[in-house]
């Protein structure tokens, strides 16, 4: 084998052009696979940074119309006490915190309020100090906080003296008890964890964290399974508890289940299909590259027939010849793999930079040892894959025939192999082109969807109000009033309002209600998203008023309650009638006041362009205050100017009240389609590469086949065949494997694109227009690849042929 290797290297030195083309083709295919596998490995395959991470589950509540997963205080405490499958159950509520080490210099950090068992569930050891524990924190219930290493460096410069130091969060003093690695925290974006002083996370709604409260759901939960308990057994336990809790509800008889989902599934579930589809796409590109290199080796083997015949005549058996040729293929594969590894390293950096913000665990993406070993394996398998067929074909050379001068250089076997490669390349390319065509079609439809907003010149600012300084609904409402009034006085601002949920933020509040005149089934009450907004909010974000009026300053906390509904809710519950003047109420108690509908506004795709507008019920913020909101500002001034005005207004009211994310509504709209845009661009790029490789490969195969028939073509023309007849014959023979490839590709695409169904918007995975267009386009490319060599061959004079 050492001799075979030396000989392979020596022969490749004599054909640098062939080697360069083959290695570049392989490097392109292997490099793309290396880059995408780095993402798949980091996001899907690499273990979570927790001990026995497969034992950690997310515990969620659910009902037919809702899958929020949120818990109420009373039912959560019941779950803690009465479950038989969990060794620890912890609650958490995400929040934004204004962290202050130096007076007057607040830093906004994302984090969570957590119960004392939180780090017991995750089993994350502290990098410095300690985490929360029942032994250390249960009795004291002091205001304790754990920082991520990122927040530790940002706030304390990485000083070990941070443990035990005092830190003001939302104006309240807290003690830093420990630091944990940033990548080991949960939720992934959290940088600070605050220990709740109650057995449940503190509530943003007054008194919702009381142990007897069972209807207000506002926080999430994670748990660790007991040793020996399976996920199915835990699910049965939750079903048992759901039935028990159902009987304990007093204000509603709604049917609500409890389910457990592995934490990994929750983290990567939304992106798994997209990443696996991209991995499959680059695998197809690599197969097309292998077909191209295989065709090069077949052509090269034809020129080596005499050499192989001499070897056979001197006693080399067929297996010996196959081994020599496979060694050469493996050398090409390994060199192509090295080139692919270098290309992949560059592509990984590029991919991480352009990945959408919704992709989790991006910090785990790297070209590590696992990826390098996988690339080595791919290079070896690739070398075998593209080398085996040419090796078997070449090793069949008959010594006597090959040694004759002027003997026939082609063979029916090689012709069949070339036809098979054409079929393979066309079929694989059609699958990729069909997938790309469907995704492009889907994305274009998504882009044309009316969002319901008028996003031009609108800036959105998130705001989280510290309940320690603004503990009452009246204080929060007064803060919002001062913010809106202060900004409205600025000449640069056309309109301003506050509202929750903010557009395209992914936030949501929801609840059930009763409609006057409709029979009420307490188990299945009408359901809607609930918004808390000011009157100017709709004007600021560009949602039109359809009927009635918007909220006024007179719709205060002491005024009679009023509501505005969106068009979807109006159509659903008052079809064919005017919703203005109709009444609804929250709850089934007789003393609950009826709320008149004073206006109907247009539908807005609040949760994303790909989701139909849900029923939405808007309440004036003084009548439904929340300690979190968004400030919507419509202004022709630059975004930086608007941001400065908002910061100045907030600072003038409260110097320790920093704004959250500041972004234009146009940017938020673009971000909402970032993931489908990324998938579409990447798979389209792979499809273009595949098309280029297939076009070159098919052209080369047919050109080579025609060149092998030069004498035959000359004889046909010398005997009277016209150039048109010869071209037609060659094109027909060239198109036959291409047509077969189209047929195979359409069958494969019908199966493969079914996996895209969940990723498409407004288009079927078997869209006939897309399939027909792709087939015609690829058929046209195959026709050109057949026609050009045929035309060139007929231009050669018969005597020269």
Helix fraction bin: 40-55%
**Assembly state of the chains shown:** single chain
Cα distance spanning the termini:
42 Å
Strand content: 15-25%
Q: Which stretches are poorly predicted, pLDDT < 50 over at least 5 residues?
A: 405-410
- Tell me the Rg in angstroms: 34 Å
Q: Report the total helices.
A: 22
Number of strands: 22
How would you state the average pLDDT, rounded? 84
Largest beta sheet, briefly? 12 strands, mixed
Structural class: alpha+beta
In brief:
This protein is an alpha+beta fold and 801 residues long. The chain contains 22 helices and 22 strands.
Please explain how this structure is put together:
By secondary structure, the protein is of the alpha+beta class. The two termini are 42 Å apart.
Please supply descriptive tags for the structure shown above:
801 residues, alpha+beta, 12-stranded mixed beta sheet, 6-stranded mixed beta barrel, 22 helices, 22 strands, 15% strand
Topology, please?
Blueprint: H1 2-14, H2 16-45, E1 56-62, H3 73-82, E2 86-100, E3 107-114, H4 118-122, E4 128-129, H5 134-137, E5 144-148, H6 149-156, E6 166-169, E7 172-180, E8 192-195, E9 220-225, H7 231-248, E10 257-262, H8 263-303, H9 305-313, H10 318-354, H11 369-394, H12 399-403, H13 412-447, E11 458-464, H14 473-488, E12 495-500, E13 510-512, E14 514-515, E15 527-533, H15 536-541, E16 545-548, E17 563-566, H16 567-573, E18 583-585, E19 595-601, E20 616-620, E21 628-634, H17 639-653, E22 662-664, H18 665-672, H19 674-708, H20 710-718, H21 723-752, H22 768-794
Parallel strand pairs: 3-8, 5-7, 15-20, 17-19
Antiparallel strand pairs: 1-9, 1-10, 2-3, 2-6, 2-9, 4-7, 5-8, 6-7, 11-21, 11-22, 12-15, 12-21, 13-15, 14-18, 16-19, 17-20, 18-19
Helix pairs in contact: 1-10, 2-8, 2-10, 2-11, 8-11, 8-13, 8-19, 10-11, 13-19, 13-21, 13-22, 14-17, 19-22, 21-22
């Amino acid at each position: 084998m050492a001799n075979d290797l030396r000989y392979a290297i020596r022969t490749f030195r004599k054909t640098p052009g062939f080697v360069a083309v083959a290695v570049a083709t392989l490097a392109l295919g292997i490099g793309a696979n290396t880059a995408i596998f780095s993402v798949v490995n980091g996001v899907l395959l690499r273990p979570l940074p927790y001990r026995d991470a497969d034992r950690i589950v997310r515990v969620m509540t659910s009902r037919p119309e809702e899958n929020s997963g949120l818990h109420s205080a009373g039912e959560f405490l019941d779950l803690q006490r009465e479950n038989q499958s969990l060794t620890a159950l912890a609650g958490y509520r995400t929040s934004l915190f204004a962290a202050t080490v130096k007076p007057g210099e607040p830093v906004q950090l994302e984090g969570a309020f957590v119960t004392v068992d939180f780090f017991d569930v995750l089993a994350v050891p502290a990098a410095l100090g300690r985490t929360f524990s029942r032994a250390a924190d249960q009795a004291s219930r002091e205001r304790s906080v754990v920082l991520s290493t990122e927040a530790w460096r940002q706030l304390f410069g990485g000083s070990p003296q941070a443990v035990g130091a005092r830190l003001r969060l939302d104006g309240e003093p807290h003690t830093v008890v420990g630091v944990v690695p940033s990548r080991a925290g949960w939720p992934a974006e959290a940088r600070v964890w605050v220990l709740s002083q109650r057995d449940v996370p503190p509530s943003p709604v007054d008194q919702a964290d009381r142990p007897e409260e069972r209807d207000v759901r506002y926080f999430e939960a994670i748990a660790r399974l007991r040793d020996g308990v399976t996920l199915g057994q835990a699910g049965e336990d939750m079903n048992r508890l759901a039935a028990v809790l159902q009987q304990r509800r007093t204000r509603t008889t709604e049917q609500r289940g409890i389910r457990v989902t592995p934490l990994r599934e929750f983290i990567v579930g939304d992106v798994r299909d997209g990443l696996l589809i991209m991995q499959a796409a680059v695998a197809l590109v690599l197969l097309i590259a292998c077909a191209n290199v295989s065709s090069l080796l077949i052509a090269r083997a034809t020129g080596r027939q005499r050499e192989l015949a001499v070897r056979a005549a001197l006693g080399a058996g067929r297996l010996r010849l196959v081994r020599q040729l496979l060694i050469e293929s493996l050398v090409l594969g390994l060199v192509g793999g090295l080139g692919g590894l270098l290309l992949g390293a560059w592509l990984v950096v590029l991919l991480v930079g352009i990945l959408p913000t919704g992709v989790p665990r991006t910090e785990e993406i790297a070209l590590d040892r696992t990826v390098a070993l996988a690339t080595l394996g791919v290079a070896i398998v690739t070398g075998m894959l593209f080398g085996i067929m040419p090796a078997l074909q070449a090793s069949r050379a008959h010594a006597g025939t090959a040694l004759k001068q002027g003997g026939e250089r082609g063979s029916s076997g090689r012709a069949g192999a070339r036809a098979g490669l054409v079929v393979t390349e066309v079929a694989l390319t059609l699958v990729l082109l069909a997938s790309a065509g469907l995704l492009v079609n889907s994305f274009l439809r998504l882009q044309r969807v009316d969002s319901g907003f008028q996003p031009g010149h609108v800036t959105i600012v998130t705001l989280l109000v510290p309940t320690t300084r603004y503990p009452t609904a009246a204080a929060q409402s007064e803060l919002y009033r001062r913010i809106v009034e202060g900004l409205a006085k600025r000449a640069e601002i056309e309109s301003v309002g506050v509202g929750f949920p903010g557009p395209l933020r992914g936030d949501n509040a929801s609840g059930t209600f009763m409609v006057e005149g409709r029979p009420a089934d307490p188990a299945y009450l009408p359901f809607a998203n609930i918004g808390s907004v000011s009157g100017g909010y709709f004007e600021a974000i560009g949602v039109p008023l359809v009927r009635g009026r918007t909220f006024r300053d007179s719709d205060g906390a002491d005024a009679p309650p009023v509501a505005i509904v969106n068009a979807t809710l109006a159509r659903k519950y008052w079809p064919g009638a005017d919703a203005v003047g109709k009444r609804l109420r929250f709850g089934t108690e007789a003393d609950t006041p009826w709320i008149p509908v004073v206006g109907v506004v247009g539908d807005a795709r609040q949760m994303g362009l790909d989701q139909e507008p849900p029923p939405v019920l808007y309440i004036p913020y003084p009548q439904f205050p929340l300690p979190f909101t968004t400030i919507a500002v419509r202004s022709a001034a630059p975004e930086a100017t608007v941001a400065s005005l908002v910061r100045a207004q907030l600072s003038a009211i409260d110097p320790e009240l920093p704004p959250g994310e500041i972004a234009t509504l146009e940017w938020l709209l673009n971000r909402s389609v970032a993931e489908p845009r990324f998938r579409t661009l990447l798979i389209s790029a792979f499809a273009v590469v595949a098309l280029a490789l297939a076009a070159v490969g098919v052209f080369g195969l047919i050109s080579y086949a025609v060149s092998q028939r030069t004498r035959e073509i000359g004889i046909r023309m010398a005997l009277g065949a016209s150039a048109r007849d010869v071209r037609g014959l060659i094109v027909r023979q060239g198109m036959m494997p291409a047509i077969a490839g189209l047929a195979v590709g359409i069958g494969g695409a019908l199966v493969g694109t079914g996996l895209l169904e969940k990723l498409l918007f407004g288009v079927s995975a078997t869209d006939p227009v897309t399939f027909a267009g792709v087939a015609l386009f690829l058929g046209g490319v195959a026709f050109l690849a057949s026609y050009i060599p045929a035309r060139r061959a007929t231009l050669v004079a018969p005597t020269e042929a």
